[in-house]
Amino acid sequence: MRAAVVVFPGSNCDRDMAVALKAAGADVSMVWHKDAALPDNVDLVAVPGGFSFGDYLRCGAIAAQSPICKAIVEHANRGGYVLGVCNGFQVLTETGLLPGALMRNANLKFICKSVDLKVENSNSAFTSGYAAGDVVAYPVAHHDGNYSVDAEGLKKIEAEGRVAFRYVDNPNGSVADIAGVLSENRRVLGMMPHPERAVDEGHGGTDGQALFRGLIDQLVTA
Ligand SMILES: NC(=O)CC[C@H](N)C(=O)O
Predict the structure, then answer these.
(1) Which of 3, 77, 140, 186 gives 124 a disulfide partner, CB atoms 3.0 to 4.6 angstroms apart?
(2) CATH no. of 2-221
């Protein structure tokens, strides 16, 4: 499986993402935000965490205007896979690939800790390595992780089973405890918690490994 990891000025989880993808068996290229095209035959684009453009305006708002984001939207519209983690999730909502927005945490503080997440369904490449109902621990590290979507949008997401992960103990005020949401075709996932920071015993836990392994198994056999 070929993966591209996008790097913006201020990304700080790009290398962690590349390490996690490589450990799961992916062939990984790094892509600079000013590039107008993705590498040929890329299966998955990973938009990593960090503070793109210093989080000015709104987290992800400036990054979403980068040339590479046009290519990411085209990739997704062709049915390509996209994973956005933390700032990557913020970027994907700003591009319109995912519904809703990430607002300031309800307690107005930066939150940095491990949280438990319930895997809502295994019906996506991203969650195929888990069983629905599994509880996994991933770190969070954000100040704008409070997922918000209007009532109609929420109804649609829930009716279509597009909540991939829910917080067991909501740390940031996200509506319906949503920690990760899928696109309509289930090939774009945005999530605030960091699976790439839970893939090595040195991280304090390895619950994120199944996300990358499941994704790669599904894409290789697709
Ligand atoms: N770790 C991250 O990606 C941080 C995301 C974002 N800049 C925030 O603090 O909300």
Answers:
(1) 186
(2) 3.40.50.880
